[in-house]
Amino acid sequence: MNYEHCIRCTICVENCPVFRVNPLFPGPKQAGPDAQRFRSDKERIEDDWLLLCSQCKRCEMACPCGVEPAHIILREQQRYGKEHPQTTAHLLFANNYYLSALGSLTAPLANVIASSKTGKKIFSKLGISTHIPFPRFSFRTLRNERMKQSRTAKKAAFFHGCFINFYRPDIGRKIIRLLSALNVDVVLPPQWCCGLPALGNGNLTLAKHFAQKNAASLSNYIDAGYDIVYSCTSCGLCLLNDYPGLLEIPQAKKLAENCYDLHEYLLKLIEEGYAQPQFREWPRRVAYHIPCHLRALKIGYPAAKLMSLIPGLECEILDDTCCGLSGSYGFKKSNEVTAVQLGQRAVSLIRKTGAKDIVADCGSCRMQLGGLSGMKALDPAEILCESLGIATPK
Amino acid sequence: MGANEYDAVIIGAGVAGLAAASFLAEQNLKVALITRGEPTACLSTGAVDVCSKGDRPLSAIKKLPPEHPFHLVAEETLRVSLDKFQQIMKAAGLPYVGSIEKNRFILTALGTFKTSCLVPATMEASPQDASESLHVVTFKGLKDFYPGYIISRRKNAKCSIYDAGISSTMSLAAHFEERPFFEKFLLWLEKQNIYQDKIAFPAVLGLESAAEIVNTLAVLTGKPVFEIPTLPPSMPGRRLFNALKKNLRDKGGDIYWSWPVTGIETTDTVIETVTSFSEGHATSISGKAFILATGSFIGGGLTATREGIRENIFHLPVHIPGPHETWFDDNYFSMNHGIGRVGIAADAAMHPLGTSWKNIFVCGSILAETQILKNGCGHGLALATALAAAKSCAEYLAR
Amino acid sequence: MIKTDVIIIGGGATGCGIARDLALRGIPHCLIEKGDFAAGATGACHGLLHSGGRYVVTDPVAARECYEENLILRKIGQKCVEQTGGLFVRLPGDSRRFREVFLRGCEEVGIPAESISASKAMELVPQLNPQIEEAIKVPDCSIDPFRLCMLNIRTSELNGGIIFTRHKVTEIVKAHGRCVGVKAIDQTTGETREIHANVIINASGAWANAVASLAGCDVPMTLVKGSLTITNHRLTNMVINRLRHPSDGDIIVPNEAVCLAGTTSIPIVDPDKMNTEYQEVETIISEAGRMIPHFNHTRIIRAFSGVRPLLKSTKMDSHEISRGFQIIDHQNGLYSILGGKLTTFRLMAEKMVDRIMAFFNLKRPCETAEKPLDGQEELSGYPLSKRLEDLKDIVCECELVTRQQVEKIIRQTGTKNVGDIQHRTRLGMGPCQGGFCTFRALGIMNDMNVISPEQSMDILHGFLQRRYKGIRQVLWGDQLREEQLVEYIYLGVLAMEKPNGRE
Question: CA B144 to CA C489: how far, in whole Å?
Fold first, then answer.
């Protein structure tokens, strides 16, 4: 009954990036605690504007009373998904895992089609936005990687997520080498989509399906003494927040206690004295765009702390804006205007810093900011690898 | 020091907390500010009230009851805190005008006059009485601003309405930051036949560029232009908060958002750590000293239940001036409600009374006997007590 | 001077019900109410349309009346009566014997009562105390009492009835010892109106004695204060009663987006001078909390009191005083109708108008039980029929009231009173209790040039003071936070304490 605590201060509304640019969205206060007093299980949900919420969670971060409007809205989005026919775009993105698998299997061809004029027309017809290039599938996924095993004190099971697996396995390889360089044994446990795309597109059943499988698999590894490490902040938030919440996974607590964000984990290793990485000079000015879901994880900005150990690196933190992509949200044509407006604003703030490159822990943010600005968008892990001189074979 | 270890940990992101953290960060101390959410300051008019009873805040302060926390703070500290505040806001591109020697008025959305001391430059031209004629410009659909209130109370006031296509304070302010939107608005404004003395706007004229925008409008129209604060979402409050946030970050402070303190670790004499249960596992932040600036009831620093009133994090003893019957007067406007006096009592070192912990300080509206509305002493008291607390904290750390 | 056949003094459920009945029977009439509709007991009650279960043990006749009226109201008010159903819950320690008597009583009176298990009850109302022994399901319903009055008045308006609200009757005009009319002061303008009629009906509830004395008559009444608390949101979708002898705090009623819980029973003398006491709020919360545990921690947004106008009795326990009603013919053209409860208002009106028909020697049958209430189609109700065409123009965000609705009421009624807008649209009835929306509603009135600046300041002062009275006894937890915010807005941002800076 969190919405009971709402004192109508409107601070959540001030923070909502969608409200700021899209007059059709009444804001988290209206969509959440205000409307909740009137919603009833006996009546069909008709508030289609609920779908305009991108689930960035900025409202929850700002609420002084602990109301959690995004959670209220997420629950009602699932109800809406159940009670109304889905758009094609919603259906496709909910099944992102399967489609990406298909895409990577047919990679060279799939990429050619996706970037062609015809492909873009097809995307438009399907309700998919083309304001930034569609990410390129990689034929050789991360799971194809063969892992070297050694006996070390620390063992990590890497939850890589769909983005790294199907689109940027090269980053995944860097992360594996990074961890290995710090004396951590890395394995790739059996894993599926974390479930967030399904949840974000109104398919609670599919999300639960993925969650149950992931939980069972990761649970085994935890029992065997592995720490679970994730690098995508949205996967992490789903694992830590939605698994115990909406997805009702019984092992959720155990998972949460043993799951770490990659940089949180690396920092922990250094603090505990387990690893003493020698960061070499890497003079650069970078703009670190903090992904909304990293903020929502409430672990601070560990990557920033790590990057501050690198001599010569100037890292300017930007955590005031949402990039506007929010996973599949910005890829839906219906949200294109919102995504572009927010993205352009985020880019202009980045440009103002005079930074050469963009850094963000979230693949979605990198796609958006890199795609809109033409600048290079790096994962912090890539910078750490550079500074540690960790090379990756092609 | 480890990544999560700090010299000073400030709890609360309001004016008091952000100011205290900034004052400490300036002294090259490693500072963390943690907060559950965004502060009440976001909802304020942005103006700094020092003591709004009468013309001269300093004399008014002298007349405050002896228990008032202003008496804990030296006048010099108050002056310096306001100076530093003005420097910070000037550097942020949002200068404040006014002086501690004399109060001034801001015209409110009701057409009444609010007494304050330092006001954002965007409100500098606010009329000080009923004599000047005003042209009020508002925006179609803006439901938190009704020119009628103002026009009906003044002679020779008129109103124009601009259809911006958007109608909330937040989105208007965001759009004013975009050149094309601003230029289109300017074209429209030029065509309004404005002959009155001054032009008034609801406070939606941009965010970080507000002062610049108001200047541009004044130059274009050749008339003084000023903003009128609105109901929340309040843009001047948001600008103030954004500027203080950025200032702390620029000075090297770490800010932890959405970090409600769920546990503390202490010895008999010192507080060592505060913990928050983040998504998954608890994270801890350790400090050599702590400053509590979590606000009053609205801020969440104090909670009243049917059983009593408590301070939520450290369970410090709460000063309650009388029994439950005295907390609320019969007359709403009496301004004498006992509840306005509830809070944490402190000594001149801003150290809370009744606790054995040596390394904790308090500032801001969580203090006892403030009676903020009655005395008109919100942000001013926050700044003064924040500097006092920061000083004491720095002294403690130096030992 | 206005000349009509019947004057009704009092715009509560009884008065409005009489107006409707007279209208349907073609009798010209004029209703005069000193405040807005439902200003007395009607506006201060639960809004519960009893199944009758509550009276089955103490007053079977009243119970039977209630049940029949319940059926009628459900029929004629299909769109405005919420058929919530009700549960009488038995907690550990509650008398099993009472339960037997209760069930037997229901059977004898003819009220459908079904005994259900605790787990079934928990399915129906998940927030119930899991320790209940059992529950008895009855057909309770709920309605917004103000709406009820408005709908009755609609019929009167459609048939030429004259309605004066905010008019206080100051004199009953007599000629040759007979009551021939009244003088009433328009509270807004100060004008006096004189209305003459053949019959005057005193349906002024708790003020019945004060009104009757204007004609030199006496009306025996006991005035009993009852207080209610309102929760932030619905904790239950069914009416919850306590399966025991009627006592304090044993009803919780869902109404619109909130729950009302109560009540208490404190004899008073002056209906215009009463306050809700903190002790009453504590009692209600603790009793309600036994049926729905969350009550102990939930946010209460308001507490208010009403006066029950009961027939004078020497019985010590005011719960035992008959809720039945009485019609007094003062033998001089004035009739007083007293007592009763919301559920039986229509029956009371019918009996009263039957008497009037006899007086006029007319034979016209009562149709109020057959004809559906007029004006129901215009209603938005709970839960989601409050669909909004225009999300941008919401004035009251707590209760989803749009600008168009507010403007419509202002134009229709010509009112300068924010309370009138509140009653008709529920503006300001939500968690912030008008904190934001009253500023907006008054702003709209300013824009429409309906009020002057002095008026708007007075209205705002008056509104804040009245609002404060309603929340004063529930200021803790979230509601205290809310209150500080509203205080900061009105007294801080809007600098309300000094109407003009240089004072």
Answer: 12
pLDDT, residue C380, reads 59
Spell out, as residue ranges, where chain A has pLDDT lower than 70. Answer: 1, 393-394
**φ, ψ for residue B35, nearest 5 deg:** -150, 150
This prediction has a pTM of 0.93
What Cα–Cα distance (Å) separates residue A22 from each residue in A27, A59, A87, B171, C489?
9, 16, 20, 9, 27
In percent, how much of chain B has pLDDT > 90? 84
Nearest to C500 among B113, B141, B298 (CB): B113
pLDDT digits (tens, 9 = 90+) for C422-480: 888 888 888 888 888 889 998 888 888 888 877 888 888 888 888 999 999 999 999 99
* Shortest Cα distance, chain C CAs vs residue B122, angstroms: 16
pLDDT at C353 over 90: yes
Q: Give the whole-angstrom CA distance, residue B86 versus residue B92.
A: 10
Integer Cα distance of B272 and A140 in angstroms: 50
Q: Is the pLDDT of residue C501 over 80?
A: no
Nearest residue on chain B to C489, alpha-carbon basis: B231
Other C-beta atoms closer than 10 Å to the C-beta of A139 total 16
Amino acid at residue number B135? H
More confident residue, C390 or B366: B366
Residue A83: how many CA atoms within 13 Å on its side-chain side?
14
Of A62, A66, A240, the CB nearest to B280: A240
- Pairwise CA distance, residues C235 & C232, whole Å: 9
Fold adopted by C80-140+222-308: D-Amino Acid Oxidase; Chain A, domain 2 (3.30.9)
Pairing of strands A184-187, A154-159: parallel
Select from B380, B381, B357, B354 the least CA-distant residue to B369.
B381
- Residue of B139, B184, B182 whose CA lies nearest to B161: B139
* CB B77 within 8 Å of CB B88: no
Quick one: which of C292, C296, C197, C312 has its CA closest to C251?
C292
- For chain C, give the mean pLDDT: 89
CA C1-C2-C5 angle, to 5 degrees, is 140
Give the pLDDT band of residue C500 (cuts 50, 70, 90): very low
Q: With 60 as the cut, is the pLDDT of residue B230 above it? A: yes
Closest-CA residue of chain C to B230: C493
Between residues 237 and 296 of chain C, which touch chain B (CB distance below 8 Å)? Answer: 278, 282, 285
pLDDT per position as a tens digit, C99-115 = 999 999 999 999 999 99
Q: Where are the alpha helices (DSSP H) in B7-133?
A: 15-25, 57-62, 75-91
CATH architecture of C2-41+146-220+323-360: 3-Layer(bba) Sandwich (3.50)
Helix extents (H) in C137-207:
145-158
Dist CA C69 CA C456 (whole Å): 43
Q: What is the pLDDT of residue C503?
A: 34
Q: A80-133 pLDDT, tens per residue?
A: 998 988 888 888 898 889 888 888 888 888 888 888 898 889 888 888 998 988
DSSP structure class, residue A281: P
Closest CA to A369 of A348, A389, A352: A348
- Which secondary structure element, helix H or strand E, spans residue C350, and what is its range? helix C345-360
3-state secondary structure of C317: coil
**C465 lies within 8 A of chain B by CB:** yes
Degrees to nearest 5, angle at CA B390 with B386 and B396: 145
- CB under 8 Å, gap of 24 or more: what pairs does A44-50 form? A44/A83, A45/A76, A45/A79, A45/A80, A45/A83, A45/A84, A46/C384, A46/C387, A47/A76, A47/A80, A48/A80, A48/A84, A49/A24, A49/A25, A49/C391, A50/A76, A50/A77, A50/A80
Q: Domain locations in chain C?
A: 2-41+146-220+323-360, 80-140+222-308, 382-493
So what's the pLDDT on residue C315?
54
